[in-house]
Amino acid sequence: MYYDLKYMSVPLPEDIIKLKNYGDFDGAGKLIAYLLTSELPESLRKRLEIEQDIIRIVGINEYPFDFTEATKMMKETFKEYDEQELTHLKETGKVDWLYIDGKVHFQRRFLMNLIKTQADYEARLIVKEDNEIDRLRKQELTENVQWMKTKGGRKVKIHLKTSIQVKKEYERPGEKVKVYLPLPKECKQTSDIQILKTTPEATFIAPEDEAQRTVYFETILEEGQIFSVEYSYISQVDYVELDPEKAAEVQPEFELNEQLPHIRFTPYLEQLLAEILAGETNPIKKARKIYDFITTKVNYSFMREYFTIENISEYAAVNLKGDCGVQAILFITLCRMAKIPAKWQSGLYVSQYYTGCHDWTQFYVAPYGWVFADLSFGGGARRNGDLERWNYYFGNLDIFRMPANSEIQTDFNPPKQFLRADPIDNQRGEFEYQNQGLPYAYLEVKQELVSMEELV
Questions:
Q1: Cα–Cα distance, 390 to 376 (Å, whole number)
Q2: What is the number of H-type helices and E-type strands within the chain?
Q3: What is the average pLDDT across 284-312?
Q4: How confident is the model at residue 1 (pLDDT cuts 50, 70, 90)?
Q5: Integer Cα distance of 329 and 338 in angstroms
Q6: What does the alpha-carbon distance between residue 295 and residue 323 come to, in Å, rounded to a whole number?
Q7: CA-to-CA separations, 440 to 141, 175, 202, 214, 302, in angstroms, rounded
Q8: Integer Cα distance of 301 and 54 in angstroms
Q9: Is the pLDDT of residue 41 over 90?
Q10: Residue 276 above 70 pLDDT?
Q11: What is the DSSP letter of 404?
Q12: Using an 8 Å Cβ cutoff, are 349 and 401 in contact?
Protein backbone atom coordinates (compact mmCIF):
# COMPACT_ATOMS: atom_id res chain seq x y z
CA MET A 1 0.00 0.00 0.00
CA TYR A 2 1.07 3.60 -0.58
CA TYR A 3 1.73 3.82 3.14
CA ASP A 4 0.72 2.07 6.33
CA LEU A 5 -2.28 3.73 7.97
CA LYS A 6 -1.34 2.39 11.41
CA TYR A 7 1.00 5.39 11.68
CA MET A 8 -2.06 7.65 11.97
CA SER A 9 -2.06 6.58 15.61
CA VAL A 10 1.16 8.56 16.12
CA PRO A 11 0.42 12.02 17.62
CA LEU A 12 1.04 15.12 15.54
CA PRO A 13 3.38 17.88 16.80
CA GLU A 14 1.53 20.58 18.74
CA ASP A 15 2.22 23.39 16.28
CA ILE A 16 0.77 21.39 13.39
CA ILE A 17 -2.39 20.76 15.42
CA LYS A 18 -2.70 24.50 16.14
CA LEU A 19 -2.41 25.38 12.44
CA LYS A 20 -4.77 22.58 11.43
CA ASN A 21 -7.43 23.56 13.98
CA TYR A 22 -7.34 27.14 12.72
CA GLY A 23 -7.61 25.86 9.15
CA ASP A 24 -4.23 27.13 8.04
CA PHE A 25 -3.57 24.11 5.86
CA ASP A 26 -0.97 25.95 3.82
CA GLY A 27 0.96 26.81 6.98
CA ALA A 28 0.61 23.26 8.30
CA GLY A 29 1.91 21.91 5.00
CA LYS A 30 4.94 24.19 5.11
CA LEU A 31 5.71 23.20 8.69
CA ILE A 32 5.44 19.50 7.81
CA ALA A 33 7.76 19.99 4.82
CA TYR A 34 10.28 21.72 7.08
CA LEU A 35 10.10 19.01 9.75
CA LEU A 36 10.62 16.29 7.15
CA THR A 37 14.02 17.81 6.32
CA SER A 38 15.10 17.05 9.90
CA GLU A 39 16.22 13.84 11.55
CA LEU A 40 13.03 12.31 12.98
CA PRO A 41 11.90 9.03 14.53
CA GLU A 42 10.74 6.86 11.63
CA SER A 43 7.21 6.52 13.00
CA LEU A 44 6.82 10.31 13.29
CA ARG A 45 8.17 10.75 9.76
CA LYS A 46 5.60 8.33 8.39
CA ARG A 47 2.82 10.10 10.31
CA LEU A 48 3.83 13.47 8.85
CA GLU A 49 3.92 12.02 5.34
CA ILE A 50 0.34 10.80 5.79
CA GLU A 51 -0.72 14.18 7.17
CA GLN A 52 0.52 15.92 4.03
CA ASP A 53 -2.17 14.10 2.03
CA ILE A 54 -4.84 14.51 4.69
CA ILE A 55 -4.61 18.30 4.83
CA ARG A 56 -4.53 18.45 1.03
CA ILE A 57 -7.77 16.45 0.77
CA VAL A 58 -9.58 18.28 3.58
CA GLY A 59 -8.54 21.73 2.45
CA ILE A 60 -9.49 21.32 -1.19
CA ASN A 61 -12.36 18.87 -1.51
CA GLU A 62 -14.23 18.26 1.72
CA TYR A 63 -15.32 21.68 3.06
CA PRO A 64 -15.98 23.97 0.08
CA PHE A 65 -18.80 26.22 1.37
CA ASP A 66 -18.25 29.27 3.57
CA PHE A 67 -21.03 30.75 5.71
CA THR A 68 -22.33 33.01 2.92
CA GLU A 69 -22.48 30.22 0.35
CA ALA A 70 -24.05 27.76 2.79
CA THR A 71 -26.69 30.30 3.87
CA LYS A 72 -27.62 30.93 0.24
CA MET A 73 -28.01 27.18 -0.30
CA MET A 74 -30.25 26.89 2.76
CA LYS A 75 -32.48 29.76 1.58
CA GLU A 76 -32.84 28.19 -1.84
CA THR A 77 -33.69 24.77 -0.40
CA PHE A 78 -35.96 25.27 2.64
CA LYS A 79 -39.17 27.19 3.26
CA GLU A 80 -39.31 29.88 5.94
CA TYR A 81 -35.57 29.91 6.46
CA ASP A 82 -34.39 32.00 9.41
CA GLU A 83 -31.01 33.76 9.29
CA GLN A 84 -29.92 32.19 12.59
CA GLU A 85 -30.71 28.61 11.65
CA LEU A 86 -27.34 27.72 10.20
CA THR A 87 -25.57 29.07 13.28
CA HIS A 88 -27.88 27.01 15.49
CA LEU A 89 -27.29 23.88 13.39
CA LYS A 90 -23.55 24.40 13.67
CA GLU A 91 -23.70 24.96 17.44
CA THR A 92 -25.84 21.84 18.00
CA GLY A 93 -23.67 19.57 15.85
CA LYS A 94 -26.25 18.91 13.13
CA VAL A 95 -23.95 20.09 10.32
CA ASP A 96 -20.30 19.21 9.81
CA TRP A 97 -17.91 22.15 9.63
CA LEU A 98 -14.33 23.24 10.23
CA TYR A 99 -12.17 26.33 10.01
CA ILE A 100 -10.34 27.20 6.80
CA ASP A 101 -8.04 30.16 7.35
CA GLY A 102 -9.96 30.97 10.51
CA LYS A 103 -13.38 31.04 8.80
CA VAL A 104 -16.15 28.47 9.14
CA HIS A 105 -16.65 26.19 6.12
CA PHE A 106 -19.28 23.47 5.75
CA GLN A 107 -18.84 19.91 4.50
CA ARG A 108 -19.73 19.32 0.86
CA ARG A 109 -22.80 17.16 1.69
CA PHE A 110 -24.13 19.13 4.66
CA LEU A 111 -27.38 19.94 2.85
CA MET A 112 -28.04 16.35 1.78
CA ASN A 113 -27.31 15.22 5.31
CA LEU A 114 -29.89 17.59 6.79
CA ILE A 115 -32.53 16.34 4.39
CA LYS A 116 -31.76 12.68 5.08
CA THR A 117 -31.39 12.82 8.86
CA GLN A 118 -33.67 15.69 10.00
CA ALA A 119 -37.36 15.06 9.29
CA ASP A 120 -38.33 18.67 9.95
CA TYR A 121 -35.97 19.89 7.23
CA GLU A 122 -37.20 17.27 4.79
CA ALA A 123 -40.75 18.52 5.44
CA ARG A 124 -39.68 22.11 4.65
CA LEU A 125 -38.19 21.39 1.24
CA ILE A 126 -39.23 23.96 -1.37
CA VAL A 127 -38.97 21.29 -4.04
CA LYS A 128 -40.22 18.03 -2.60
CA GLU A 129 -38.14 14.97 -3.31
CA ASP A 130 -39.81 11.90 -4.77
CA ASN A 131 -39.75 9.49 -1.83
CA GLU A 132 -41.51 6.68 -3.67
CA ILE A 133 -38.27 4.85 -4.45
CA ASP A 134 -37.17 5.05 -0.82
CA ARG A 135 -40.59 3.79 0.31
CA LEU A 136 -40.45 0.85 -2.08
CA ARG A 137 -36.92 -0.02 -0.99
CA LYS A 138 -37.95 -0.12 2.67
CA GLN A 139 -41.01 -2.17 1.75
CA GLU A 140 -38.76 -4.62 -0.11
CA LEU A 141 -36.54 -5.02 2.96
CA THR A 142 -39.55 -5.61 5.23
CA GLU A 143 -40.92 -8.20 2.79
CA ASN A 144 -37.50 -9.88 2.75
CA VAL A 145 -37.69 -10.34 6.53
CA GLN A 146 -41.04 -12.12 6.18
CA TRP A 147 -39.71 -14.26 3.33
CA MET A 148 -36.66 -15.30 5.37
CA LYS A 149 -38.67 -16.13 8.47
CA THR A 150 -41.26 -18.10 6.50
CA LYS A 151 -38.93 -20.05 4.21
CA GLY A 152 -35.76 -20.12 6.30
CA GLY A 153 -33.55 -18.63 3.63
CA ARG A 154 -33.33 -17.07 0.20
CA LYS A 155 -31.22 -17.51 -2.94
CA VAL A 156 -30.93 -15.21 -5.98
CA LYS A 157 -28.71 -14.84 -9.03
CA ILE A 158 -27.52 -11.26 -9.52
CA HIS A 159 -26.10 -9.72 -12.72
CA LEU A 160 -24.32 -6.36 -12.26
CA LYS A 161 -22.42 -3.87 -14.39
CA THR A 162 -20.07 -1.30 -12.86
CA SER A 163 -17.95 1.36 -14.54
CA ILE A 164 -15.51 4.19 -13.90
CA GLN A 165 -14.15 7.06 -15.99
CA VAL A 166 -12.30 10.33 -15.55
CA LYS A 167 -14.33 13.51 -15.75
CA LYS A 168 -13.66 15.42 -18.94
CA GLU A 169 -11.76 18.27 -17.26
CA TYR A 170 -9.27 15.84 -15.68
CA GLU A 171 -8.84 13.57 -18.70
CA ARG A 172 -5.32 13.13 -20.14
CA PRO A 173 -5.66 11.00 -23.30
CA GLY A 174 -2.50 9.32 -24.48
CA GLU A 175 -1.15 8.74 -20.96
CA LYS A 176 -0.74 5.35 -19.33
CA VAL A 177 -3.36 4.63 -16.65
CA LYS A 178 -3.99 1.95 -14.04
CA VAL A 179 -7.64 1.32 -13.20
CA TYR A 180 -9.31 -0.95 -10.63
CA LEU A 181 -12.97 -1.95 -10.23
CA PRO A 182 -14.35 -4.07 -7.35
CA LEU A 183 -15.51 -7.64 -7.96
CA PRO A 184 -17.57 -10.04 -5.84
CA LYS A 185 -15.35 -12.19 -3.64
CA GLU A 186 -15.71 -15.66 -2.24
CA CYS A 187 -17.45 -15.51 1.14
CA LYS A 188 -20.18 -17.11 3.21
CA GLN A 189 -23.12 -15.81 1.17
CA THR A 190 -21.60 -15.62 -2.33
CA SER A 191 -20.90 -18.41 -4.85
CA ASP A 192 -20.75 -19.21 -8.60
CA ILE A 193 -19.04 -15.92 -9.47
CA GLN A 194 -18.80 -15.38 -13.24
CA ILE A 195 -16.92 -12.52 -14.96
CA LEU A 196 -19.05 -11.95 -18.07
CA LYS A 197 -17.37 -9.03 -19.82
CA THR A 198 -14.70 -6.38 -19.30
CA THR A 199 -14.23 -3.23 -21.38
CA PRO A 200 -11.44 -2.87 -22.38
CA GLU A 201 -9.99 -6.35 -21.94
CA ALA A 202 -8.84 -6.80 -18.35
CA THR A 203 -5.12 -6.94 -17.62
CA PHE A 204 -5.62 -9.02 -14.47
CA ILE A 205 -8.49 -10.46 -12.44
CA ALA A 206 -7.67 -11.05 -8.78
CA PRO A 207 -8.46 -14.45 -7.20
CA GLU A 208 -11.85 -14.92 -5.58
CA ASP A 209 -10.35 -15.16 -2.09
CA GLU A 210 -8.58 -11.78 -2.29
CA ALA A 211 -9.36 -9.63 0.76
CA GLN A 212 -10.24 -6.69 -1.51
CA ARG A 213 -11.00 -8.23 -4.88
CA THR A 214 -10.61 -6.22 -8.10
CA VAL A 215 -10.39 -6.37 -11.86
CA TYR A 216 -7.34 -4.44 -13.06
CA PHE A 217 -6.78 -2.51 -16.29
CA GLU A 218 -3.48 -1.08 -17.48
CA THR A 219 -3.62 0.77 -20.80
CA ILE A 220 -3.14 4.05 -22.67
CA LEU A 221 -6.13 6.29 -21.95
CA GLU A 222 -8.39 7.17 -24.87
CA GLU A 223 -10.64 10.22 -25.00
CA GLY A 224 -13.94 9.60 -23.21
CA GLN A 225 -12.89 6.06 -22.30
CA ILE A 226 -15.09 4.11 -19.88
CA PHE A 227 -13.73 1.12 -17.96
CA SER A 228 -16.41 -1.42 -17.06
CA VAL A 229 -17.01 -4.97 -15.89
CA GLU A 230 -20.10 -7.18 -15.94
CA TYR A 231 -20.41 -10.17 -13.64
CA SER A 232 -22.95 -12.50 -12.10
CA TYR A 233 -23.01 -14.43 -8.84
CA ILE A 234 -25.35 -16.28 -6.52
CA SER A 235 -26.28 -14.64 -3.25
CA GLN A 236 -27.65 -17.03 -0.63
CA VAL A 237 -28.51 -16.25 2.99
CA ASP A 238 -30.03 -18.53 5.62
CA TYR A 239 -32.18 -17.21 8.44
CA VAL A 240 -30.92 -17.60 12.00
CA GLU A 241 -32.45 -16.82 15.38
CA LEU A 242 -29.75 -16.35 17.98
CA ASP A 243 -30.68 -17.95 21.30
CA PRO A 244 -28.45 -16.77 24.17
CA GLU A 245 -29.24 -19.97 26.06
CA LYS A 246 -27.54 -22.01 23.33
CA ALA A 247 -24.27 -20.05 23.38
CA ALA A 248 -21.33 -22.36 24.00
CA GLU A 249 -19.35 -21.97 27.20
CA VAL A 250 -16.07 -21.83 25.28
CA GLN A 251 -15.86 -19.24 22.51
CA PRO A 252 -13.10 -18.92 19.86
CA GLU A 253 -10.20 -16.49 20.14
CA PHE A 254 -9.61 -15.42 16.53
CA GLU A 255 -10.39 -11.99 14.99
CA LEU A 256 -9.94 -10.26 18.36
CA ASN A 257 -6.95 -8.06 17.55
CA GLU A 258 -6.54 -4.31 17.20
CA GLN A 259 -5.93 -2.91 13.72
CA LEU A 260 -4.57 0.59 13.99
CA PRO A 261 -5.60 3.32 13.62
CA HIS A 262 -9.34 2.58 13.50
CA ILE A 263 -9.84 -0.68 15.42
CA ARG A 264 -8.12 0.54 18.55
CA PHE A 265 -8.88 -0.32 22.18
CA THR A 266 -8.69 3.15 23.71
CA PRO A 267 -9.34 4.06 27.35
CA TYR A 268 -12.58 5.82 26.44
CA LEU A 269 -13.87 2.80 24.50
CA GLU A 270 -12.96 0.56 27.45
CA GLN A 271 -15.02 2.76 29.76
CA LEU A 272 -17.88 2.91 27.25
CA LEU A 273 -17.90 -0.86 26.77
CA ALA A 274 -18.05 -1.46 30.52
CA GLU A 275 -21.06 0.86 30.67
CA ILE A 276 -22.77 -0.86 27.73
CA LEU A 277 -22.24 -4.41 28.98
CA ALA A 278 -22.95 -3.69 32.66
CA GLY A 279 -21.40 -6.98 33.72
CA GLU A 280 -23.03 -9.18 31.03
CA THR A 281 -21.01 -12.32 30.19
CA ASN A 282 -23.16 -14.15 27.62
CA PRO A 283 -21.57 -13.52 24.18
CA ILE A 284 -24.87 -13.20 22.30
CA LYS A 285 -26.28 -10.81 24.87
CA LYS A 286 -23.02 -8.82 24.84
CA ALA A 287 -23.14 -8.48 21.05
CA ARG A 288 -26.80 -7.45 21.23
CA LYS A 289 -26.06 -4.77 23.82
CA ILE A 290 -23.36 -3.34 21.55
CA TYR A 291 -25.75 -3.50 18.58
CA ASP A 292 -28.48 -1.74 20.56
CA PHE A 293 -26.14 1.03 21.70
CA ILE A 294 -25.00 1.81 18.17
CA THR A 295 -28.42 1.55 16.53
CA THR A 296 -30.10 3.73 19.16
CA LYS A 297 -27.37 6.20 20.16
CA VAL A 298 -25.17 6.70 17.07
CA ASN A 299 -27.10 8.83 14.58
CA TYR A 300 -26.71 8.15 10.88
CA SER A 301 -24.72 10.89 9.15
CA PHE A 302 -22.89 11.33 5.87
CA MET A 303 -19.15 11.50 6.43
CA ARG A 304 -16.11 13.22 5.05
CA GLU A 305 -13.53 10.87 3.53
CA TYR A 306 -12.55 8.22 6.10
CA PHE A 307 -8.90 8.86 5.35
CA THR A 308 -9.17 12.23 7.10
CA ILE A 309 -10.39 10.73 10.42
CA GLU A 310 -7.66 9.67 12.86
CA ASN A 311 -9.63 6.94 14.67
CA ILE A 312 -13.01 6.02 13.19
CA SER A 313 -14.32 3.88 16.06
CA GLU A 314 -13.57 6.50 18.70
CA TYR A 315 -14.88 9.25 16.41
CA ALA A 316 -18.25 7.44 16.27
CA ALA A 317 -18.35 6.83 20.00
CA VAL A 318 -17.45 10.41 20.93
CA ASN A 319 -19.51 12.28 18.34
CA LEU A 320 -22.37 9.73 18.34
CA LYS A 321 -22.74 9.93 14.57
CA GLY A 322 -21.51 8.12 11.51
CA ASP A 323 -22.50 6.38 8.29
CA CYS A 324 -22.67 2.63 7.63
CA GLY A 325 -18.92 2.08 7.63
CA VAL A 326 -18.24 4.20 10.71
CA GLN A 327 -20.94 2.34 12.65
CA ALA A 328 -19.61 -1.00 11.40
CA ILE A 329 -16.05 -0.24 12.53
CA LEU A 330 -17.32 0.80 15.98
CA PHE A 331 -19.27 -2.47 16.27
CA ILE A 332 -16.23 -4.54 15.24
CA THR A 333 -14.01 -2.69 17.72
CA LEU A 334 -16.36 -3.04 20.68
CA CYS A 335 -17.07 -6.69 19.89
CA ARG A 336 -13.37 -7.53 19.74
CA MET A 337 -12.81 -5.69 23.02
CA ALA A 338 -15.63 -7.82 24.48
CA LYS A 339 -13.87 -11.00 23.21
CA ILE A 340 -16.42 -11.54 20.44
CA PRO A 341 -14.74 -12.23 17.07
CA ALA A 342 -15.89 -9.68 14.50
CA LYS A 343 -14.87 -8.69 10.98
CA TRP A 344 -15.67 -6.43 8.06
CA GLN A 345 -17.69 -6.90 4.89
CA SER A 346 -18.49 -4.26 2.30
CA GLY A 347 -19.27 -3.71 -1.33
CA LEU A 348 -22.63 -2.82 -2.81
CA TYR A 349 -26.25 -2.88 -1.75
CA VAL A 350 -28.09 -4.11 -4.85
CA SER A 351 -31.83 -4.00 -5.54
CA GLN A 352 -34.27 -2.97 -8.23
CA TYR A 353 -34.82 0.34 -6.43
CA TYR A 354 -31.27 1.31 -5.50
CA THR A 355 -27.68 0.18 -6.06
CA GLY A 356 -24.83 1.82 -4.18
CA CYS A 357 -21.97 1.49 -1.69
CA HIS A 358 -22.57 -0.15 1.68
CA ASP A 359 -20.67 -1.59 4.67
CA TRP A 360 -21.75 -4.19 7.24
CA THR A 361 -20.20 -6.72 9.65
CA GLN A 362 -19.95 -10.32 10.73
CA PHE A 363 -19.49 -11.61 14.27
CA TYR A 364 -18.89 -15.12 15.57
CA VAL A 365 -20.63 -16.97 18.36
CA ALA A 366 -20.37 -20.72 18.88
CA PRO A 367 -22.27 -22.87 18.01
CA TYR A 368 -23.80 -20.61 15.33
CA GLY A 369 -20.54 -19.62 13.64
CA TRP A 370 -20.27 -16.40 11.62
CA VAL A 371 -23.48 -14.35 11.58
CA PHE A 372 -24.22 -10.83 10.37
CA ALA A 373 -24.98 -7.42 11.81
CA ASP A 374 -25.94 -4.41 9.70
CA LEU A 375 -25.85 -1.42 12.01
CA SER A 376 -27.10 1.33 9.70
CA PHE A 377 -29.92 -0.78 8.24
CA GLY A 378 -30.91 -1.85 11.73
CA GLY A 379 -30.78 1.70 13.08
CA GLY A 380 -32.75 3.01 10.10
CA ALA A 381 -35.45 0.39 10.65
CA ARG A 382 -35.76 1.35 14.31
CA ARG A 383 -36.03 5.06 13.47
CA ASN A 384 -38.84 4.18 11.07
CA GLY A 385 -40.66 2.20 13.74
CA ASP A 386 -40.00 -1.21 12.12
CA LEU A 387 -38.82 -3.09 15.19
CA GLU A 388 -39.04 -6.48 13.52
CA ARG A 389 -36.55 -5.41 10.83
CA TRP A 390 -34.37 -3.78 13.52
CA ASN A 391 -34.18 -7.12 15.34
CA TYR A 392 -33.62 -9.00 12.08
CA TYR A 393 -30.37 -7.19 11.26
CA PHE A 394 -28.85 -8.49 14.47
CA GLY A 395 -27.72 -11.90 13.26
CA ASN A 396 -29.09 -11.71 9.71
CA LEU A 397 -28.54 -10.09 6.34
CA ASP A 398 -30.64 -9.64 3.22
CA ILE A 399 -29.68 -11.12 -0.17
CA PHE A 400 -29.30 -7.68 -1.80
CA ARG A 401 -25.51 -7.53 -1.47
CA MET A 402 -22.32 -7.67 -3.51
CA PRO A 403 -19.46 -8.31 -1.05
CA ALA A 404 -16.12 -7.19 -2.51
CA ASN A 405 -14.10 -6.65 0.69
CA SER A 406 -13.53 -8.78 3.78
CA GLU A 407 -10.85 -6.57 5.36
CA ILE A 408 -10.00 -2.89 5.71
CA GLN A 409 -6.61 -1.31 4.95
CA THR A 410 -5.20 -4.02 2.70
CA ASP A 411 -3.44 -3.96 -0.66
CA PHE A 412 -4.99 -4.67 -4.03
CA ASN A 413 -3.58 -7.37 -6.27
CA PRO A 414 -1.61 -5.94 -8.04
CA PRO A 415 -0.85 -3.14 -5.52
CA LYS A 416 -1.72 0.46 -6.30
CA GLN A 417 1.29 2.80 -6.61
CA PHE A 418 -0.18 6.09 -5.34
CA LEU A 419 -2.56 7.15 -2.58
CA ARG A 420 -5.94 5.55 -3.04
CA ALA A 421 -9.12 7.63 -3.23
CA ASP A 422 -10.33 5.32 -0.45
CA PRO A 423 -7.47 3.71 1.51
CA ILE A 424 -9.92 1.86 3.80
CA ASP A 425 -11.64 -0.43 1.29
CA ASN A 426 -12.91 -0.49 -2.31
CA GLN A 427 -16.52 -0.09 -3.41
CA ARG A 428 -16.34 2.37 -6.32
CA GLY A 429 -12.95 1.69 -7.92
CA GLU A 430 -9.61 3.46 -8.24
CA PHE A 431 -7.86 5.33 -11.06
CA GLU A 432 -4.29 6.58 -11.37
CA TYR A 433 -1.97 8.21 -13.89
CA GLN A 434 1.77 7.56 -13.87
CA ASN A 435 2.35 10.47 -11.48
CA GLN A 436 -0.77 10.53 -9.24
CA GLY A 437 -3.85 8.76 -7.98
CA LEU A 438 -7.18 10.51 -8.54
CA PRO A 439 -9.75 11.45 -5.86
CA TYR A 440 -13.43 10.67 -6.39
CA ALA A 441 -14.09 14.32 -7.14
CA TYR A 442 -12.27 13.70 -10.46
CA LEU A 443 -14.14 10.51 -11.33
CA GLU A 444 -17.56 9.29 -12.46
CA VAL A 445 -18.64 5.91 -11.11
CA LYS A 446 -21.76 3.93 -12.04
CA GLN A 447 -23.29 0.74 -10.65
CA GLU A 448 -26.18 -0.83 -12.52
CA LEU A 449 -28.29 -3.87 -11.69
CA VAL A 450 -28.87 -5.76 -14.94
CA SER A 451 -31.04 -8.53 -13.49
CA MET A 452 -31.93 -10.40 -10.29
CA GLU A 453 -33.40 -13.89 -10.60
CA GLU A 454 -35.03 -15.72 -7.71
CA LEU A 455 -33.71 -19.29 -7.34
CA VAL A 456 -35.35 -22.21 -5.62
A1: 10
A2: 14, 18
A3: 96
A4: low
A5: 14
A6: 11
A7: 29, 19, 22, 17, 16
A8: 21
A9: yes
A10: yes
A11: E
A12: yes
